[in-house]
Amino acid sequence: MASGDRTVLQFSTQSTSNLSAKVHPLVIFNICDCYVRRPDQAERVIGTLLGSVLSDGTVDIRNSYAVPHTESAEQVALDIEYHHNMLVSHQKVNPKEVIVGWYSTGLGVTGGSALIHDFYSREVPNPVHLTVDTGFRNGEGTIKAYVSVNLALGDSQLAAQFQEVPLDLRMVEAERLGFDILKTTSVDKLPTDLEGMEVTMQRLLALIDDIYKYVDDVVEGRVAADNSIGRFISDTVAALPKLSPPAFDKLVNDSLQDQLLLLYLSSITRTQLALAEKLNTAAQIL
Amino acid sequence: MAASSTARSFLQVAATEEVVSPLRFVQIEGLVILKIIKHCKEFSPALVTGQLLGLDVGSVLEVTNCFPFPIREEDEEIEADGANYQLEMMRCLREVNVDNNTVGWYQSTILGSYQTVELIETFMNYQENIRRCVCIIYDPSRSNQGVLALKALKLSDSFMELYRTNNFTGEKLREKNLSWVDIFEEIPIKVSNSALISAFMTELESNTPVTQCDYDRLQFSSNPYMERNMEFLIECMDDLSMEQQKAFPILLQELVTSTSPATGMVSEKKVVYLISMLLDSLFSLKDHLGPSKSENMARKAAGEEPLPEEDPTNPIFKPIPEPSRLESFLITNQIANYCNQINGYIVYSRSYPFFWIA
């Protein structure tokens, strides 16, 4: 009798166990910018996340926009028409980006969030909720992503629980480039290519120094040898093509000469253009 | 804060109408850069454009936000849609307190070949409505080399006046002392970020010793890139030689008609000039040395004599592509130079670690 009455609280986890989310830094920037520009009476900012769902189930969040909303203790009102307008506009530019969820600033999930999540789940089957803690409450800026998981008691739906999913910050190479200048509050001028080259070379040299030091330490017994690192190093060194020094020299010199030729050609062209200009202005005295 | 600075600049603009401080630099937010990079990269190799929004404060042009334009087909109804889209976006952004003040536009380019007549025309269109506007050019193909290729351009004032009068004859250019380098002015870019964002970013991404762009920079397969550059260069040269070929019959005609009233001395110089131009035209068919001289003559000639083409109104507009083309020639040239420098550097420094390990 007792066993017949007892029902089990089910957490359906299998659908979300391998769900993870990837966020592009642009989204974070957008959110921070919207937070800084929010109207004075609003405590937090709410907005829509755009992106796509990849083939392995990962949600790729690529873009976002803020949606004006009003919030009070009891209720939350979202400007739905604005949301739709922005969605249509964004899709004109990039039809592949669809709604994948929504974001809000501030740590943790509040009661009002459940209502908003409900609204978004009517647009998308499984929306992702992103919270960005702009208040740095834990001493760091935490960004978390949640999906809603249904809690069912037997057959009847009880409630929805926000369950956290792993989040990954992902960046495209081109964005990576600008990244160093994006970290500080202001940069006086964009780095030129030569400077970038310099920085790269310095980093490379630093890396090589590290490896050298490590190998030295291991040989002298100061650091315990780690076989996997050792294998890695030997693989790397073996990956360098085996060329005899004269062959290598020839290779390098050939390519260098090709480039010098191009340099010469372009210099000639530039000189010619300068001459032509001078002749043009001088030749009119006819 | 944005509102108060808008009010200040508004007052300033209203009060000091005559004094226009020259634009010293463009201050861009990191957000805008990321958006531009993302948009251009997604649609590369297609060329895309977008609108820049921000504030014009004194000698600094601040760009605080931007939005992309959808790819427009050549269709009349889509034109109206494009305008609607723009209005809609501006309105929506206003609601979330973004500065919806247009300060220019951005576009992507391939290997720096952006000097076209359309660019100049767009500039003129914008200039009518906005006092100060810039165009930001982003080159996604150069970013594959590990360089952030972002440039802010503005048309120089003297060129704009000349364009308005639509007069590109040689004497006019000489009067204004305008050469092809004076068409566009490049403005230095400064990047600014709010403190919140920099805090986030510094925390999310620790300073790794080596980043992906380092790997990109150390790549040796720059040959395809150089080849494309050279292809562009050669195409431009072909264009130039074609221009000058068209102009040749006119110059002959001009010589014939103008020797009679002129003194012997003058016609002699003209003959010498024409002969040198002939030689140039012969050379330019083989290599690139010399098309520019005759091309400049064509500029002068075309302004005074109609070219023998079917469309008689064409010659009037003919001079206009020429300065731009010359510029694009030069710029492609410069790019070839740039990447040569990079490559030279790479090659020199590449040998270093090799020898060290070996």
Spell out the blueprint of helices and strands.
The complex is a heterodimer of chains A (286) and B (358).
Chain A: H1 2-5, E1 9-11, E2 21-23, H2 25-36, E3 46-53, E4 59-67, E5 69-71, E6 76-78, H3 80-93, E7 98-105, H4 111-123, E8 128-132, E9 143-153, E10 156-165, E11 167-169, H5 173-183, E12 186-187, H6 193-220, H7 227-239, H8 245-283
Parallel strand pairs in A: 2-4, 2-11, 7-8
Antiparallel strand pairs in A: 1-9, 3-4, 3-7, 5-6, 8-9, 9-10
Chain B: H1 2-15, E1 25-29, H2 30-43, E2 49-57, E3 60-68, H3 76-95, E4 102-108, H4 117-129, E5 134-138, H5 140-143, E6 150-155, H6 157-165, H7 170-176, E7 184-187, E8 189-192, H8 195-204, H9 212-217, H10 223-259, H11 264-286, H12 291-304, H13 314-317, H14 321-357
Parallel strand pairs in B: 1-3, 1-8, 4-5
Antiparallel strand pairs in B: 2-3, 2-4, 5-6, 6-7
Structural account:
The complex is a heterodimer of chains A (286) and B (358). Chain A is of the alpha/beta class and 286 residues long. Chain A folds into 3 domains: 20-173, Cytidine Deaminase, domain 2; 191-240, no CATH class; 244-285. Chain A is 47% helix and 24% strand. Chain A contains 8 helices and 12 strands. Chain A has helices at residues 2-5, 25-36, 80-93, 111-123, 173-183, 193-220, 227-239, 245-283, and strands at residues 9-11, 21-23, 46-53, 59-67, 69-71, 76-78, 98-105, 128-132, 143-153, 156-165, 167-169, 186-187. The longest helix of chain A has 39 residues, at 245-283. The N and C termini of chain A lie far apart (117 Å). Mean pLDDT of chain A is 72; it is low at 1-5 and 12-16. With 358 residues, chain B is α/β, with parallel strands linked by helices. Among the domains of chain B are: 20-155 and 188-218, Cytidine Deaminase, domain 2 (3-Layer(aba) Sandwich), CATH 3.40.140.10; 220-256 and 318-357. Helices cover 59% and strands 14% of the residues of chain B. Chain B has an 8-stranded mixed sheet. In chain B, helix 4 (117-129) links the parallel strand 4 and strand 5 (134-138). Chains A and B meet through helix 2, strand 4, helix 3, helix 5 and strand 12 of A and helix 2, helix 3, helix 7, strand 8 and helix 8 of B.
